[in-house]
Specification:
Pfam families: DUF951. This is DUF951 domain-containing protein. It comes from Filibacter tadaridae. This protein has one helix at about 50-55, and strands spanning about 10-15, 25-30, 35-40, 45-50, 55-60. By secondary structure, the chain is mainly beta. The chain has one domain (about 10-60).
Length: about 60
């Protein structure tokens, strides 16, 4: 399986939709865990990095370098 590439401030699409109706999330912290913030309602969640890589579908918007 190909390794997914994502970076801080990227907006990513997750496989499951958030209860607010969107599945676009912004990566706001990276380390051993990844903190993501919902673009719809602003709710933030911290997920283990390997679990995040499994649940992420694709990068929608890349952050400016």
């Amino acid at each position: 399986m190909e390794r997914k590439i994502f970076d801080l401030n990227d907006i990513v699409e997750m496989k499951k939709q958030h209860p607010c109706g969107t599945n676009a999330w912004k990566i706001i912290r990276m380390g051993a865990d990844v903190r993501i913030k919902c673009e719809g309602c602003g709710h933030s969640v911290m997920i283990k990095r390997n679990e995040f890589a499994k649940k992420m579908k694709k990068v929608l918007v890349r952050a400016e370098p």
